[in-house]
Design brief:
The complex is a heterotrimer of chains A (329), B (368) and C (316). With 329 residues, chain A is mainly alpha-helical. Chain A contains 14 helices and two strands. Chain B has two domains: 151 residues, Rossmann fold, CATH 3.40.50; 135 residues, Response regulator (Rossmann fold). Helices cover 39% and strands 18% of the residues of chain B. The chains are: A mainly alpha (329), B alpha/beta (368), C mainly alpha (316). Chains in contact: A-B, A-C, B-C. Chains A and B meet through helix 2, helix 3, helix 7, helix 13 and helix 14 of A and helix 1, helix 2, strand 7, helix 7 and helix 8 of B.
Chain lengths: 329, 368, 316
């Protein structure tokens, strides 16, 4: 009994009335509005903000965060969290780069991190699902293990001399950088899949109410493992995009990456309590962060104040969302 | 309500942004600067009495095998891997030193203090350090001195009385002069430039930037300082920040200074990917291996750095000489193995030498 | 209630046994580990994390989390410097004002969480960035140094042979244990975390409880900030970065359920000691820092696995 079309599963987006539909995508509209407003205001101050290079940089620069946030959104929607994703991406990027410089076929250097991501996170999911350990505990532990382990093994030696045809993030298709393609296509696929597939609804059901989902015949444990495995695959893709952005890989854990990914998911409207949210929101949030970072430089905001402005903007987005929800009630 | 919230949000964020508009800020510190003469006349070195600390009741370690721990600012970055290699080389050459490197994975003052504290308890004979903060690290180093441990710093100094000697890779004003002169040579006397640094709280970087500002004002007064951006010790962030600078200033931007061994290659990459090689010069502090691709493609003409392997090597040599009693307060030079005699400056600092400029012709000869 | 209490004690028993085993193992590895001087010194090093962890236990018992503690610590440090050095206030006044400011920071967290119903994780994620940003903006990356000698008693001195901050930590441990374990407020804290709606219906001031707890979290982070400045004799805007992870690890290791409703101060204290003992003992026995991080991660997972397995057996 794996399918989730049983009647007791809480109904999701397809059956909603128009008003509720706007509610379901409200956060996406707010984010889209914020991005547009930012572009308008900043380009008014400095028209170069709208230069093709800058726009392409804003969309491509945080694409790996958006991709990682897709997996993170699934995890959070299913009622869990993963604070180890930054460390995992660091480890997977290092594996990928090491394979690439040691003469393995390029496709293997792209594929292995995705597979390792799946295996590692399936293990994490199994610990959470079958041994009933809270996800924050397992992933807090994994964060230490992966971070310490990576430095023990590599001593932080940089990986240089990467072959040119390995640098997938620097490829362009129709003039658009490949990370943007990855971000857009994966987001669209997952958004569609989450809404219309049985398993997509299963994820919402588990996050919404575990016991109800269980009663409805959903194999909660198995589904949790699958969700984490999918999350691992996205971390793998994100790691490859991350590793191939430049011609050198630092082989350490990127600082605070997990916070950025989680923030993108929750600002994107994924409820930390599980059960609601879409991956479109998290991708928009990742783009918004890149746009904010870029616009602060364009607006000459003193870098000393940069972080407070970022924090304030996150807070405002969240408060606006709360106000909207209250209004709908 | 929704509209009002969004309007409020926008208003608030705009308000904050305009409030945060600072006139000029460079990322420098507020200590007095001492720019060198424009024509390269060496600054007059004043003889200063020894101002370092002295270990209490240190046992006689002359010629005896000693255990040394090296606690850099953080582990896992190319620069400190290189100093660590130099330390290991020196230990091998000396034969009577057992040296290991251990430290925090992030440049964090608290963790660095805990590491040093633990090694004091475990009973080492010598400590090498590169301080994350000159003042914060002082109490624990004084504790080490009080326990009879020989303490020598390198790369980033502490308060002088908290350690015995500090191996200075190159004087701040010397680095500043080398960087600014190279930039002026490449982009011309009236060009505009920007800086990518690590964080504004990193003492060395803040010091260099202040000295650069002073030297530029004195010797290249027509160059224009656009802005300084922060990029942690993070590759991708440095790349993004540098790319944004290029997009923002367009053709006004002629040069980018990279203040760290992470920021410089990432800035060079940003220039390369923007297709601006030859139009925007990158000058900065960096290790040669990371810079080779850009130097070989003529995208970067000059990379300034001392040799960090030599720096680590010299640090351990100095520690050994101190433990042996060969380097005493008041000495004017010290023998540092294959590096020969190094000069003592500023009372208790040992100068590694002048900063070195890597170019296309010589960069192949270095591997670190 | 007694059943939960029993299962709680079970986790602490397991933890205590684990701690004894770890201490014994570490003592055989290095003869410098089990000395009074070393143990007291370790107490000094863990005081800041310990103080914050005590209130974090309350926060997590209510089912919340406070990620902004490290940033509040940094902001307090900067404000202390600004009040004393730039505004010229007497140092004791500056200390009090800085801690009060930290309390306000906590209160703001509490207000965002209770008034606007923002989940604590998101609210404090935002203020984590905001408070750190304020510290950076206010300080403009400048440090304030040169504090008078008496100020260092707090962070570097000792009273009756024991580090000063260890006395403060000890006093707060007792207070926290009494408040959480024996008072109405403690019961309200548990009730809020176990079943918030139920607690509201039974007339418990859920919002007031949370508001007080988040404010206390800010205050204590501020106190830890002042002690930290005294210990390292300077202020920097990056102080306390990553503190939240250490604190949460200690609390969770101590058996407090991240879902709320369960947890004790004794557990948190055991978790703290275990973590610090591992950091110190492993370093003394020659394990490098990166290896130590791996071990702590493993211990965290294994301790919770073990406790889960045992308590499930107990449930039959």
């Amino acid at each position: 009994m794996m399918t989730a079309s049983s009647p007791a599963v809480p109904r999701t987006a397809p059956a909603m009335r128009p008003m509720k539909r706007i509610a379901a995508y409200g956060q996406e509209f707010i984010l889209l509005g914020a991005i547009v407003a930012l572009f308008v205001v900043v380009s008014f101050v400095n028209p170069r903000f709208l230069g093709a290079n800058n726009i392409s940089n804003i969309f491509a620069g945080n694409a790996y965060i958006a991709v990682a946030a897709i997996g993170m959104s699934l995890v959070i929607i299913s009622g869990h969290i993963d604070v180890a994703v930054g460390s995992l991406i660091g480890v997977l990027a290092t594996i990928s780069g090491t394979l690439a410089v040691n003469g393995y076929p390029i496709w293997l250097a792209w594929l292995v991190p995705v597979l390792v991501g799946i295996v590692v996170n399936a293990g994490v999911g199994a610990l959470i699902a079958y041994l009933r350990i809270p996800s924050i505990v397992v992933t807090l532990g994994m964060l230490s293990i992966l971070k310490g382990g990576l430095i023990s093994v590599t001593a932080g030696a940089w990986i240089t001399n990467l072959p040119a045809d390995y640098l997938i993030a620097q490829f362009r298709l129709f003039g658009i950088p490949s990370p943007v393609w990855f971000m857009v296509i994966l987001t669209a696929l997952v958004a569609f899949w989450m809404r219309y597939s049985g398993f997509g609804r299963t994820i919402y059901a588990i996050g919404g109410n575990v016991e109800a989902a269980r009663v409805a015949g959903i194999q909660v444990e198995r589904s949790t493992v699958i969700v984490f495995a999918i999350h691992g695959a996205f971390a793998g893709i994100a790691a490859v995009l991350f590793a191939t952005q430049l011609q050198v890989i630092q082989s350490t854990v990127p600082p605070n990456l997990e916070l950025t990914v989680i923030t993108a998911s929750v600002v994107g409207g994924v409820s930390i309590l599980g059960g609601t949210g879409t991956v479109i929101g998290s991708t928009l949030a990742a783009i918004l962060f890149a746009a904010i970072a870029s616009s602060l430089i364009f607006l000459n905001v003193s870098a000393y104040w940069l972080r407070s402005v970022q924090g304030l903007l996150i807070l405002i987005t969240v408060l606006a969302d709360m106000a909207r929800r209250r209004r709908l009630r | 309500m929704l509209k009002r919230t969004v309007a409020l949000a926008l208003g608030l964020s705009l308000g904050v942004s305009s409030a945060a508009l600072a006139a000029t800020w460079t990322g420098g510190d507020d200590l007095p600067t001492n720019p060198l003469a424009c024509n390269g006349t060496p600054g007059k070195a004043e003889a200063k009495p020894y101002d370092g600390g002295v270990p209490t009741n240190a046992p006689d370690r002359k010629g005896k095998p000693i255990k040394v721990v090296d606690v850099p600012k953080l582990i896992g970055i190319g620069y400190f891997n290189a100093t660590s290699k130099g330390i290991a080389d020196a230990a091998k050459e000396l034969g009577n030193v057992e040296a290991k490197t251990d430290g925090p994975t992030q440049a964090n003052i608290d963790q660095q203090i805990s590491f040093i504290d633990n090694y004091i308890t475990s009973g080492v004979d010598g400590i090498l350090f590169a301080a994350n903060d000159p003042v914060a690290i002082a109490p624990v180093l004084k504790k080490a001195l009080a326990a009879g441990i020989n303490v020598v710093g390198y790369d980033a100094n502490s308060q002088p009385d908290a350690r015995q000697w500090f191996v200075n890779q190159a004087e701040f004003n010397g680095i500043a002069k080398a960087l600014v002169d190279n930039m002026a040579k490449e982009v011309g006397e009236d060009a505009s430039f920007a800086i990518v640094t690590s964080t504004f709280t990193t003492p060395n970087q803040a010091r260099w930037i202040s000295e650069m500002e002073a030297y530029q004002a004195k010797c290249h007064p027509n160059m224009k300082w656009l802005e300084t951006v922060e990029a942690q010790e993070d590759n991708v962030l440095s790349f993004n920040q540098a790319t944004t600078l290029i997009n923002k200033h367009g053709d006004d931007l002629k040069g980018i200074f990279g203040m760290t061994s992470v920021a410089t290659p990432a800035s060079a990459e940003a220039v390369t990917q923007a297709g601006k090689c030859g139009k925007i010069s990158v000058v900065g502090l960096a290790t040669p291996n990371a810079m080779k691709p850009y130097v070989e493609k003529d995208c970067v003409k000059s990379v300034v750095l001392w040799n960090p392997v030599d720096l680590g090597y010299a640090a351990l040599q100095v520690l050994r000489a101190t433990a042996d009693g060969d380097l005493k307060p008041g000495a004017t030079s010290v023998k540092a193995g294959k590096l020969g005699d190094l000069q003592v400056i500023n009372g208790s600092e040992i100068l590694l030498g002048a900063p070195f400029t890597f170019t296309k012709d010589n960069i192949k000869d270095f591997d670190f | 209630m007694t059943a939960t209490l029993r299962s709680l004690l079970r986790h602490e028993t397991i933890l205590a046994i684990l701690l004894v085993l770890v201490l014994a193992a570490l003592a055989t590895q290095s003869d410098r580990f089990f000395t009074t001087a070393n143990l007291l010194n370790q107490g000094r090093l863990m005081a800041e994390v310990g103080l914050v962890a005590l209130v974090m236990t309350f926060v997590i018992v209510t089912g919340g989390i406070d990620l902004s503690v490290g940033s509040i610590l940094g902001l307090t440090a900067i404000l202390l410097g600004v009040f004393w050095h730039n505004l010229g206030l007497p140092l004791p006044v500056a200390m009090v004002l800085a801690i009060v400011a930290a309390g306000i920071g906590g209160l703001i967290n509490g207000l965002i969480i209770t008034r606007f119903k923002v989940p604590p994780l998101i609210a404090t994620l935002a203020t984590l960035a905001l408070y750190r940003g304020l510290a950076e903006g206010i300080s403009q990356a400048r440090s304030v140094r040169g504090y008078p000698e008496w100020f260092f008693v707090l962070g570097q001195g000792e009273v009756l042979g024991v580090p000063t901050q260890l006395w403060i930590l000890g006093a707060l441990v007792v207070i926290a244990a009494v408040v959480l374990g024996l008072t109405t407020f403690g019961r309200a804290t548990y009730a809020t975390g176990a079943n918030e709606t139920g607690a509201r219906f039974s007339g418990i001031g859920v919002d007031r409880t949370k508001l007080l707890i988040y404010t206390a979290s800010g205050l204590v982070a501020g106190l830890a900030g002042v002690i930290f400045v005294s210990r390292v004799s300077t202020t920097r805007s990056d102080m306390g970065t990553g503190l939240e992870l250490d604190v949460i690890t200690a609390v969770v290791l101590g058996g407090t359920s991240i879902f709320g409703g369960r947890g004790t101060i004794i557990g948190t204290v055991l978790g703290l000691i275990l973590m610090q003992a591992l950091k110190n003992g492993l370093a003394l026995s020659g394990v490098k820092g990166d290896g130590t991080i791996v071990v702590i991660g493993l211990v965290l997972i294994l301790a919770i696995v073990a406790s889960n397995l045992f308590s499930r057996e107990g449930d039959g």
